[in-house]
Specification:
Strand order of the largest sheet: 1-2
Number of domains: 1
Order of helices and strands: EEHHHHHHHHHHHHHHHHH
InterPro entries: MATE_euk, MATE_fam
Largest sheet: 2 strands, antiparallel
Radius of gyration: 23 Å
Strand content: under 5%
Organism: Cinchona calisaya
Keywords: Membrane, Transmembrane, Transmembrane helix
Family: Belongs to the multi antimicrobial extrusion (MATE) (TC 2.A.66.1) family.
Number of helices: 17
Main location: membrane
Distance between the termini: 22 Å
Length: 520
């Protein structure tokens, strides 16, 4: 059994010197070739803050230490998310220079068809945030590779039927009420984007696998290279050579496959040590429990994406639909950029919570949630403030149509509020703790029982148009935020640490973390 007073992720079997105290309280990544890279923190579990036995100075010291740990993970994760999101965003910028129909085409395909597929695959892959993170914290390093292989199997299996949505994209969009022009063009574009789904199925498990080991800098470098090449090729093929939408599809598919293959080769090269045990038939065992958690993760992740998708589809039924959808796509694009900060914090907090719970440090997990909540809220407020200051300027980057730019200007205040909520890493906390099933039910109620119906009512009954739809989206997100914050504040984190141990046992691992008796 592990001594609970040892440093986080300390493992004397992997070339770590337990007597080295030179870098006390600083986050370091062990890179010896004979070991799995790990974060080593020369510290013990933090003291109970709510018992009055910690001074303000000690609290600020703990806050600063935790903030460094979070930024070590969040900084590269945010950069990676921005680069990956930039692939689609740059494509939309180039398409906007071709015309309003082309911009709406890529927006609808990306939001509805590709967005639906990505949401399912990303959600299914989010089970690894719980399992790989907690296994890493519990020092079950070999299980990380097994879990990743299970996820590969599930995601590629699910990606096959998803391709029918791409094949029949035109018919699906017409059924959903999109205009004939947009349906035809978006359906054609969707056919060209089928390879992207299998790149997602390969890349998403790799990303979660590497995140759990705090190998975030490597992913950032790969994403940066992909974005630079994508931006140049996008401009060259779409605008300079005049290939238009076929060129956009070629560049997008190539960029996502580059990321997937680069991460795959990095892992296969042996850079992750014992975390990658090689391909194993063990990956095909215990699939039922793994699949159950994957489905819950998918529902939790997808419901938020589907709410955005519903707004885009409903906007297609309004007057002057092409302008409305184009303006809405620009706002969603900006929201997506800002959400990359939230995505980075989600990745960081899921790693911190899952690692700490897997190690048995439940107080440290709870404290990390508080630190990330504070810093992510400040970032959300900053983004919203800057956007409001630039509300007259930024629409020009996406469209030359005056009607589109004016509508974006009017939607900017609602967009600012959405950005604040989007920066909160609530899904990351849920994934790290293994609460996906419970949060999925809350998301369903908040988004589709309250939020979306309210938006439809405001849009059509009170003739508020796309603003009414955004009101509904804001209501859903607000209710979901309050609900998850209540769950976090009322959670018994000691029990969550025990639950992490049991989850690993049920899915093929063993646990070593010793949990304290005096948890508060």
């Amino acid at each position: 059994m592990e001594d609970y007073e040892q440093p986080l992720l300390f493992n004397s079997n992997y070339c770590h010197d337990p007597m080295n105290q030179e870098n006390n309280n600083y986050l370091i990544s062990q890179r010896e070739p004979c070991s799995i890279p790990s974060i080593s923190l020369n510290e013990t579990e933090i003291s109970p803050i709510n018992h009055g036995n910690i001074s303000t100075a000690d609290f600020l010291k703990e806050f600063y230490i935790e903030l460094k740990k979070v930024w070590y993970l969040a900084g590269p994760s945010i950069f990676t998310s921005v680069c990956q999101y930039g692939l689609g965003a740059f494509t939309q910028i180039f398409a906007g220079q071709l015309g309003t129909v082309q911009l709406a085409t890529i927006s609808v395909e990306n939001s509805v068809i590709a967005g639906f597929g990505y949401g399912i695959l990303s959600g299914l892959g989010s089970a690894l945030e719980t399992l790989c993170g907690q296994a890493y914290g519990a020092k079950q390093y070999g299980m990380l590779g097994i879990y990743m292989q299970r996820s590969w199997f599930i995601l590629n299996t699910v990606a096959l039927p998803i391709t029918f949505l791409f094949i029949f994209g035109t018919q699906v969009l017409k059924f959903l009420g999109q205009t004939p022009t947009i349906s035809k063009e978006a359906g054609k574009f969707a056919m060209w984007m089928i390879p992207q789904q299998f790149a997602y199925a390969m890349m998403i498990p790799l990303t979660k696998f590497l995140q759990a080991q705090s190998r975030v800098m490597e992913m950032a470098i790969i994403a940066a290279i992909a974005l630079c090449v994508h931006a140049f090729l996008g401009w060259f093929l779409i605008l300079n050579l005049g290939w238009g939408l076929p060129g956009a599809a070629l560049v997008l598919n190539g960029s996502w496959w580059f990321i997937a293959l680069a991460q795959f080769l990095y892992v296969m090269a042996g850079s992750c040590g014992v975390a990658w045990p090689g391909f194993s038939w063990k990956a095909l065992t215990n699939l039922s429990g793994f699949l159950k958690l994957s489905i819950s993760s998918a529902l939790m992740e997808c419901l938020g994406m589907w709410q955005l998708m519903a707004v885009v589809l409903l906007a297609g039924h309004l007057k002057n639909a092409e302008v409305t959808v184009a303006a809405l796509s620009i706002c969603i694009n900006i929201l997506g950029w800002a959400s990359m900060v939230g995505s980075g914090f989600n990745a960081a907090i899921s790693v911190r919570v899952s690692n700490e719970l897997g190690s048995g440090r439940s107080r440290a997990a709870k404290f990390s949630v508080m630190v990330v909540g504070v810093i992510s809220t400040l970032f959300g407020l900053l983004f919203a403030f800057v956007l409001l200051l630039q509300r007259k300027q930024y629409p020009t980057l996406f469209s030359t149509d005056n009607e589109v730019k004016h509508l974006v200007y009017e939607l900017t205040p609602y967009l600012g509020l959405s950005i604040i909520f989007a920066c909160l890493p609530l899904n990351g906390v849920a994934a790290g703790a293994g609460w996906q099933n419970f949060v999925a039910y809350m998301n369903l109620g908040c988004y589709f029982i309250f939020g979306t119906p309210f938006g439809i009512l405001m849009c059509y009954k009170f003739d508020m148009g796309v603003k009414g739809l955004w009101y509904g989206m804001l209501l859903g997100v607000f209710l979901q935020t309050i609900a998850v914050l209540l769950v976090i504040s009322l959670a018994n984190w000691k029990k969550e640490a025990y639950a992490a141990q049991e989850r690993l046992k049920q899915l093929g691992g063993e646990t070593q973390a010793q949990l304290p008796d005096d948890e508060n």
